[in-house]
Amino acid sequence: MALHFDRPEYARRIKAATAAMEAQGLDGLLMFQQESMYYLTGYDTFGFCFFQCLYLGADGKLALLTRSADLRQAQHTSIIEDIRIWTDAAGAKPATQLRDMLESLGAKGKKLGIENQSYGLTHANGKQLDAALDGFCKLQDASDLVNMIRVVKSPAELKYVRKAGELGDAALKAAVRKTKAGADEGEILAAQQGAIFAGGGDYPANEFIIGSGRDALLCRYKAGRRALGKRDQLTLEWAGVYRHYHAAFMRTLIIGKPTKHHLAMDAAAQEALAAVEDQLVPGRTAGDVFAAHARVMDEHGMQNHRLNACGYSLGAKFTPSWMDSPMFYKDNPVVIGPGMVFFAHMILMNSEAGAAYCLGRTYIIGQKKPEPVSKAPLEMIIR
Prior knowledge:
The chain is α+β, with helices and mostly antiparallel strands. The protein folds into two domains: about 5-150, Creatine Amidinohydrolase, Chain A, domain 1, CATH 3.40.350; about 155-380, Creatinase/methionine aminopeptidase superfamily (Creatine Amidinohydrolase, Alpha-Beta Complex). It has helices at about 5-25, 35-40, 70-75, 95-105, 125-135, 145-150, 155-180, 185-200, 260-280, 285-300, and strands at about 30, 55, 60-65, 85, 110-115, 140, 210, 230-240, 245-255, 310-315, 325-330, 340-350, 355-365, 370, 380. The strands form two sheets. Strands 7, 8, 9, 10, 11, 12, 13, 14 and 15 form a nine-stranded mixed beta sheet that branches. A hairpin with a 4-residue loop joins strand 12 and strand 13. Helix 4 (about 95-105) crosses helix 5, helix 7 (about 155-180) runs antiparallel to helix 8 and helix 9 (about 260-280) runs antiparallel to helix 10. The protein is elongated and about 70 Å long.
């Protein structure tokens, strides 16, 4: 069995989830977020692109409804013992089969939480589920129930986060070695991903970002590659990934000589990141972090070039994105606490000048100050 934590760790997580359910008056929880399933049981799959649901009862009982392709996946990677299969067929109604499973578990007439906000529950499947459970039980949105438990990492989880940080550093070193005038972006991207795999890491929950020239101003992945010019800029966003735990990073590398815009952006980004670090302590809020970022950026005249968010929580995430909640944006009231993990990114994009500069790394929140999971220096990288 490919479990990445011991059974007492899973037992503690399930106990925390059932306690949260009790606090909300729930008799059970219907999970569609793959992150919740992985966190509570170890179940590791991308099969959530089809209908599947993990049920957790108030008594801690687990039952999974999935497809036949994921039967052995659940058996090999999770602590789930009650695994039921819905049948692929023309006119298949997995929502009805879920209702039947719930009835066999004594959930009829009960109040159940449901993860409505989930990539694993499409609108069409949600409508079928509502119809199947109409009059059978009472549903209450509980999309954040497990998420709010996941946001604080255990010591065992933090070991994986630190390992992900080491892999992220290895990926940066590999990229820097490949970066020079004439280098192909594909070679740089391959070097980064290869370093992570060679270190025992995993696929990320979303694509790495790579862009040079004017495409350095993009903060999403796009298809297509180019060779670096003699005087160029290269934006990279990547994550070290270990057991699905992510440590994300962002840098803009300069090829040749930096422009005056790059130098001004670097000064702003360095000062803003330092101000953000001062807020990454217990008792501050996610909104406080963004306010520090915005204040410094605006003092440097970068208000038209910065974003309206400057980071987010990280953890064990699945496709399509490694971004987790909470996020650093204006007035976000979520209070920061020890054991949380955040990626702070200082992203600057000057469309008029065609210049970009990005600086970001991942932190573990400690009792008094944040712990960067990267040992890489923050100064501008010039190749």
